[in-house]
């Protein structure tokens, strides 16, 4: 028996038992999907940070809110950033309430803040999408791989029960096959955990900037005649 051939990665996978192969296939599919979401969120978060910075600069450098709102409405929904959506929602509600007779300034500002907070929640839902999937992959994949490992080791010892004397050539393939499942579980989990922690940090910083803008914009609107 060629031990080196038996311990090759491809050989171990193709000769693994069906339950272990199913575990490996599941982990491979989950890993590919998590990498898709990792790159998807990478571009989405970078774009959100870029558009937030650009709109903050435009907002503080342009005292004409009407012109800024008109400029924002000329952009397509795809081209608008999250902060621009929050600004548009707040300013639109502010103008509508100002035109309503019998509404005092406190009610106007309260309605404006509610409109911005509602838009803020929708934007945060978009930014946080797929993060729960990455968290699940990072926490569950090692255990799924461990399940495949346990099953593989059980098969290895069951095979040895019919052998009078166990040798390394007989034990090594079964043990190696079992450990491949654990390795694949870690391969799926580690990138997902790293990406999840990074994106949660970035989204949290964006959330802080959005909330600060809501308060600052509310102060600006209160000073409007």
What does this structure look like?
The protein has 225 residues and is an all-alpha fold. It has one domain (3-222). It is built from eight helices and no strands. Helix 5 runs antiparallel to helix 6. The longest helix has 55 residues, at 168-222. The protein is rod-shaped, with a radius of gyration of 28 Å.
Give the helices and strands, then pairings:
Layout: H1 3-6, H2 9-14, H3 18-61, H4 65-74, H5 82-98, H6 105-127, H7 131-160, H8 168-222
Helix pairs in contact: 3-7, 3-8, 4-5, 5-6, 5-8, 6-8, 7-8
Essential attributes:
mainly alpha, 225 residues
Please identify the structural class as seen in this structure.
mainly alpha
Distance between the termini: 89 Å
What share of the residues does DSSP label as strand, in percent?
Answer: under 5%
Question: How many distinct helices?
Answer: 8
Order of helices and strands: HHHHHHHH
Largest sheet: none
| Rg, Å, rounded | 28 Å
Low-confidence stretches: 1-5
Number of strands: 0
Helix content: over 70%
The gross shape turns out to be: rod-shaped
Domain module tally: 1
Indicate the mean pLDDT: 85
Offer a concise description of the structure.
With 225 residues, the protein is mainly alpha-helical. Helices cover 84% and strands 0% of the residues.
